[in-house]
Amino acid sequence: MIERFGDDRDWFFEKRFGLFVHWGLYAIPAWHEQIQQIKVIPREEYEPYAKEFNPTNFDPDAWIDLAIETGMGYICLTTKHHDGFCLFDTAETDYNIMNSPYGKDLIKELADACHKRDFPLCFYYSVADWHNINYPNEGRHHELLVQPNDEPDILKYTEYVRAQIRELCTNYGKVSCIWWDMNVPEHIDKSVNDMIRELQPAAVINDRGFDPGDFGTPERDYDQATRNARSFDRLTEACQSLGSKSWGYKTDDDYYGIEHIKRSMDSFMSKGANYLLNVGPMADGTIPQVQVDMLKEIGTWFNGVKESYIGTDPVSEKTHNQDILLTENGNSLYVHLYKMPSESSLSLMPINTLPAKAVLLNDGRELPCRVDVLPKIFEPYLQVYDLPIEQYAGDVMVLRLDFPDGIPG
Ligand code: GLC
């Protein structure tokens, strides 16, 4: 079991599901958040998007409403992505929102909306930077090729980062997470996170910055070993985008199937991980309807089964059945059918105690259970019968088994 922090960072254990938002100038060309690097667009062609960015339909309350409706408990926005454009008012560069036609501090607007509702606010910040001349762009992954007039200096650049993180941790009230990305130079400097901890004691910090931070960040389903593990040995927050090709808004993006997202969520969350699910708003600030609809559908499922994640502990070691994962809370044992079930019964081997009740959380129906000896399995084990596998093909079923005398095993 993963130890809690025992301090204000423990909010992270309560709010298990968050909204990730990738948003910036790249919403204008609407192809990929890394379009500048992937399509080798010269700075002088990309940077003028800052003179166009004018998200007059940005409505932070609507974003938070959508997150809450989906069952999410926090939001994490890209304050600065790899392109280096800052969505916040900063004294450290002119390349920021105040010098766009919008001319208002977006981060301040979001922060005010979050604090009004006590909704945890998290800041994504990219170390890789395609605008700052001191960032050592060397053509490594997530970097531009060497730029002729740059003055690469990682120490000077780290001071820039430190000053901006200080602004983010000072000017926007409570910050619940600093979500680093892409420390490509692998520069280690523990003092940066130390500063965050001093300024924002409730902030959890991820592992992509200047030291290992508080939690790991497996991305999409790239790392099958992580996805297939039956437990995690460090605090984890998986991140995933609705768009299969891009995190930022892309016209005609291919979207993941809802079933894929639900299975991914369940496979991480039932092992104790948090899940950060990403949308890419359009340049005017609107979250595209297709993404809103997807979140609503995911939320309908999640809100039905969320008691199996929130406040529970992962206990998959209590069964030998590799097709299911288990969580528990008090006298309730939750069974997660994170893989597509191949049959309508399931075995909780080696558990051989009958629960008082087995409930399918998806619709509240009770399912029959017996402690049975089955052909070729000579010991009696708990079996649950009549799973509605046809009805829920394409969905993720979660059951609650109530053991009033305590969960066996
Ligand atoms: C990857 C992408 C980056 C995105 C991040 C989110 O690192 O390169 O664009 O912001 O994932 O986890």
Walk me through this protein's architecture.
This protein is α/β, with parallel strands linked by helices and 409 residues long. The protein folds into 2 domains: 8-308, Glycosidases (TIM Barrel), CATH 3.20.20.80; 315-402, Sandwich (Immunoglobulin-like). The chain is 23% helix and 18% strand. The chain has 10 helices and 15 strands. The chain has helices at residues 11-14, 35-38, 43-46, 60-70, 106-116, 154-168, 190-199, 224-228, 258-269, 289-305, and strands at 17-21, 74-80, 121-126, 177-181, 204-205, 237-241, 274-279, 313-314, 325-329, 332-336, 346-347, 357-360, 369-374, 377-384, 398-402. The strands form 3 sheets. A 7-stranded parallel beta sheet has the order 5-4-3-2-1-7-6. Helix 4 (60-70) runs parallel beside helix 10. The longest helix is centred in the last third of the chain and has 17 residues, at 289-305. The two termini are 16 Å apart. The model has no long low-confidence stretch (mean pLDDT 96). The site of alpha-D-glucopyranose (GLC) has 9 residues, from loops.
